[in-house]
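Mods, move this if it's the wrong board.
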Amino acid sequence: MRIGITGGIGSGKSYVSHLLTAHYSIPVYDSDREARRLMVASESIREGLVRLIGREAYSPSGELCKAVVADYLFSAPSHATAVNAIVHPAVKTDFLQWAERQRGVVAFESAILVEAGFRDVVDCLMVVSASEELRLQRAMERDGAEEKQIRDRMARQCSEAERLQAADFVVMNDGRDLMPQLEEFVHYYI
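Not the wrong board. Structure tokens:
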């Protein structure tokens, strides 16, 4: 069983993932962390990014030049599409290999699970939801970012309505107790 966990910025996906691991021993693949790892470790990603952006995408020591990649990524919508076309297939393959090694129930956490086309690698989709204002407040506090920066990030993600439409199960993270919701999920799906 492969559980997808998604939600907008500041929804509490990582916290829900932590609770699933802590209370139900479900290992979670953090797609953001693993994508960053793969952007350095994967030769195919490295070659693709160098072809796309140029050698300046990596330092002489082989480290990813995050500022260069970010500048390219956010300079045009087509650039994000091009980078995602290089990174997402490698993340999908890495997740499937990781899940196979786990031999049991696993989870895949991704803020962009729906829009990145990862729905086909999970058996059920859990959406962690909260109001836009609460998500905005959480993300600003967590990241030390200005409201405009967070709203720009929110605008690049799919809408809450799109996520909810794709959901098999919704966890409302608006201040109510999460454990009864997770117990219901585990009872029904696992």
